[in-house]
Structure formats: structure tokens, C-alpha cells
Amino acid sequence: MSASAKLPPFDPADPLGLDDLLEPEDLAIRDTVRGWAADRVLPYVADWYEKGELPGIRELARELGGIGALGMSLEGHGCAGASAVQYGLACLELEAADSGIRSLVSVQGSLAMYAIHRFGSEEQKRQWLPRMASGEVIGCFGLTEPDIGSDPGAMRTHAKRDGGDWVLNGRKMWITNGSVAGVAVVWAQTDDGIRGFAVPTDSAGFSAPEIKHKWSLRASVTSELVMDDVRLPADAVLPEVTGLKGPLSCLSHARYGIVWGAMGAARSSFEAALGYARSREQFGRPIGGFQLTQAKLADMAVELHKGMLLAHHLGRRMDAGRLRPEQVSFGKLNNVREAIDICRTARTILGANGISLEYPVMRHATNLESVLTYEGTVEMHQLVLGKALTGIDAFR
Q1: Which of 16, 79, 105, 231 could form a disulfide with 71 if both were Cys (CB 3.0 to 4.6 A apart)?
Q2: Exposed, middle or buried by CB within 10 Å (0-12, 13-18, 19+), for 140?
């Protein structure tokens, strides 16, 4: 660059110029999802959150299918075949609206659809994936149990052969989409090891009572799955995987979306704090003109955009087929932790208004408390990285 070349202006919304890393198609997908969320979620989500409900979830799912957001990084069977970066950008924009909406999409695409796409038979893929990609059928993913979280190998849900059928019994807990799902991907102990099953939710003996009294992810459907002698045909089992590598690979794919999504919640909170700091006056001038407020805003911006840069880097590695599970743990551990800190700092800038649903900050902060521990707690990701760094397994 010559000394006389004009630098582009500094953009407070993109201080590192990260948009320069994106292709026109990336930007188009991001803007499509952002526009949908602005129209269909943001005007209503505070009321949904306050009431603890997600009305019209089936209609929302069909709309999300219509813009290609369901299973968007998968190929074939009606899926969009988008890049990992494009899927990440969609997760960021959805979680900037609300973590519950991103969870709906993440569980549908990165857990339920991903499991069927990667480990299912061709018949299972044809049966479920096109309707899930369109949003006609909602899916859920049953791994966590009432007494089994971070140690899924100890699950008690089991499936026994009975002639040519399987008989499934057990309980799963904290299942996003469970009460509205048409198919549940359920993991169970068998005589051959842990296996996955595509379970139609209208099967006799299957029920999914919704979990109430949540103070996080309130604009989301969360359920228990109850399976009492659910009889399934032999072809309900996912044939291409046995053991924990099946559900754990699905979780790794979903955690990747969280790396991006958490930065969406952080961005929304930062933008609220920045706008408030520019307009709120104390001692005769906007509070954004005081050094302590500017220090908070600067630190928030640094961590926000470092997190976005990390997400982008991991997305490029995934697109190149080079993303390791340990690197996903790196991203989830850092980005969710920093996102919560950004929300808490934003709350201090807004003062008492920070706890009001007129602003998104407290809603994002409470949602992120769930995101922090689901699909791998802080401690589990620390131990994944600790093992990778030292070569010593400290899980047990």
C-alpha cells in the first residue's frame, strides 16, 4: 500500500474488518438469516421469554426450512449443502435473536439430522431428511438422562431384541424440541454396545412431557423423553455406528455451531450497551464519554471480535476437513465463557435497565448459562484440552 492510499473508515460494528474474510454468498446467507430473525423473532421474543413459551414453533420451523437453515451444512436429501462458515454465520444471527431459536435449528440440523445423515441407512435418509430439511418434521436428540450427563457411557436407557423387533425402555432429560418432534434420535445400551435409533414419536409407549419452570432458554421447547416398551422394527436402528463415537461426533458438530452462536448473543448485548452508552446522560453528558465506560466497551469489543475470528478460523478448518474435536472444545470453552462476561459487563453499563426485558442483555445472559453447560460443561472441555496438551487422561 502506498503512503497516499486511503484507509477504509473504522467501523464500530466490524472493528477488525472481518467482513473482508467473507465471500458474497456468505454475506447473502448471513443477511437472509438476519432479516428473517429481525422480522419473525425480535419483535416477539421478549414476550415469549417472559411467558416461557415458543408459540408457533412448527410454523417457525417451516419458515426456517424455507430459507435453507435446517441441516444447512449437510448435502443431499433436500439439504442446502452450505459451507461450515455459512452455517456458523446463520447460528450467530439466530442466537443474536435468541439462544432458543438457535437451539431449535442446532438440534434439528447438527444433532438429529446429522445423526441420520451420517449413520443412517439410505431408507432412513429418504424417510426423514427431506421432511426435516423443509421443517415439515421436527427432530430431537435423546442422549442426556435424568441421572446421566457428562458420562453418557453410563446411560441406563436400553434396547433389547425381541424377535425381529427392538424394545426400547428408558428416560432422557433436557431434550430440546422433544414435545413437538416427529422423530427422536435416541441412544441406548444394547447387547452390541450403544446404538442409535430413529424413533417415530407417535410410537406406542413414547411420550415427551414438556419441562416447565425454567429460568433459561424460556423461548424454547424443552422436554423429557419417556420410553416404556416402545416397540421398533429392526430397521429403526442407525446401522453405520456402534459405541459412543456416534453421539459424540454429533455433539462435536453441534458444539461448532455454539462457537458462532455464543458470539451472536454477545454481539446483541454489546450493541445494546454501546447504543445505551451513547444516549444515556449522567453528570451532563453521555456515559459513553467517561473513561471507565469506554474501557468496558473496548474490552467487550476485543473479546467479541476475537471470538468471531476464532469461530471463522474453526469454520475454515471444518470446510477443509481439518477440524479436530479438541479444537471445537477450545472454541466452545472460550466463546461461551467470554460471551457471558460480555453480557454481564453490558448489564453494568445499562444499570437497572439491564435487567429489563426492554433490552436483550439479561435474556441473553440467562440463556448463556444453559449454553455454558449443555453439550459439554466447562469442566469437560477443560479436560478435553488438558488431555490433548499433556497426553494424560484426567477424566477418571
Answers
A1: 79
A2: buried
Relative to beta strand 139-142, strand 183-190 is parallel
Per-residue pLDDT tens digits for 115-144:
999 999 999 999 999 999 999 999 999 999
Give this prediction's pTM. 0.95
For 10, which DSSP code? Answer: P
Alpha carbon distance 25, 228 (integer Å): 47
Q: Which superfamily, per CATH, for 139-236?
A: Butyryl-CoA Dehydrogenase, subunit A, domain 2 (2.40.110.10)
Domain 18-134 has CATH 1.10.540.10: yes
The residue extents of the domains of the chain are 18-134, 139-236, 245-390
Residues written for the chain: 396
214, 374 contact by CB (below 8 A): no
Catalytic residue numbers, as ranges? 375
The grid cell for 267 is 454481539
| Burial zone of 385 (CB within 10 Å; 0-12 exposed, 13-18 middle, 19+ buried) | middle
Q: What is the pLDDT of residues 202-256, one digit of tens each?
A: 999 999 999 999 999 999 999 999 999 999 999 999 999 999 999 999 999 999 9
